Prior knowledge:
Blueprint: E1 6-11, E2 14-19, H1 30-45, E3 51-56, E4 61-63, E5 71-72, E6 75-76, H2 94-107, E7 112-116, E8 119-121, H3 123-130, E9 133-137, E10 141-143, H4 146-149, H5 156-165, H6 167-176, E11 180-181, H7 182-187, E12 193-195, H8 200-212, H9 216-228, H10 233-248, H11 251-261
Parallel strand pairs: 2-3, 3-7, 4-8, 7-9, 8-10, 9-12
Antiparallel strand pairs: 1-2, 5-6, 10-11
Helix pairs in contact: 1-2, 2-3, 2-10, 3-5, 5-6
This protein binds Salicylyl CoA.
Protein name: 1,4-dihydroxy-2-naphthoyl-CoA synthase
Function: Converts o-succinylbenzoyl-CoA (OSB-CoA) to 1,4-dihydroxy-2-naphthoyl-CoA (DHNA-CoA).
Family: Belongs to the enoyl-CoA hydratase/isomerase family. MenB subfamily.
Amino acid sequence: MKFQDILYTKYDGKARVTINRPNKLNAFTNQTLQEMISALLDAWTDKNIGVIIITGAGDRAFSVGGDQSIRSKDGYATSNSEKSGLEGLENLPLANNHAMLLQIIRTIPKPVVAMVNGYAIGGGHVIHVVCDLSVASEKAKFGQVGPRVGSFDAGYGSAYLARIVGEKKAREIWYLCQQYTAEDALKMGLVNKVVPPENLEEEVEKMCDTLLSHSPTALAALKASFNADTEAIWGIHSIAGIALNLYYGTDEAMEGRNAFMEKRKPDFSKFRK
Length: 273
Ligand code: 2NE
């Protein structure tokens, strides 16, 4: 498979999807998300693959979410570059591609492990949130930024996050838009393990080898069972995606995006409270 924004490798029963836009802190575009979807569908149907790893290229970021430099009132522009091969997906708004990626990570009947090597911010943070397991480098930083940059994830990114870290903490994460260290993330149950950056690869490989030594059918059934209780969040996520696409067309949302790009504080004072 030929990709432009991701690296996709398969070895020893593992599939690895690496977001490969390190110069943009692995911010994603529609192209990136479509390629991730293609790779995950390949891993899903490959009977030799038992576990999937998602990570970011370089040592600075896992992913910092949607690429703000291409965001306008129409949402995020679709890349004109080579397509992933999934006909028609290029016509979907970014929020829909992001939603589809999240739903595939949740539904694929194999464990998905987030190897969080740096910033996991915004929609990038949500990708790790929906992964089955997360292993973080001591240098990783976690957070949501939507209310500061004119965006929100009112589905898995908030409702499912609350199931993981609790209501108060999830509200704090979204309302205050602060950053959290890997140690903070471990304390709130947001990641499974924190290791020195130089041990991250080894630790994830070890975890994946353990997963691969277990019964794939048992793991698949357990994953479906863990998902069952929060399945309704997909419905909320879908409605939130429609709201988000409408919100992106507003001056209020654009103020958040423009302030970020212009490296200034947003001024939301003129918008109705
Ligand atoms: C990521 C963070 C915390 C990094 O901060 P810092 O201080 O370490 O670096 P800096 O200078 O802010 O960023 C480094 C470069 O990366 C770019 C910046 O503009 C900067 O560019 P230069 O000045 O060097 O040219 N950069 C960072 N994030 C970017 C992004 N997302 N898109 C494009 N360029 C980006 C800090 O930069 C930060 O808070 N970034 C904002 C992240 C953000 O707004 N993400 C989108 C959230 S919305 C979303 O992801 C989403 C959703 O909510 C729902 C559905 C789908 C997606």
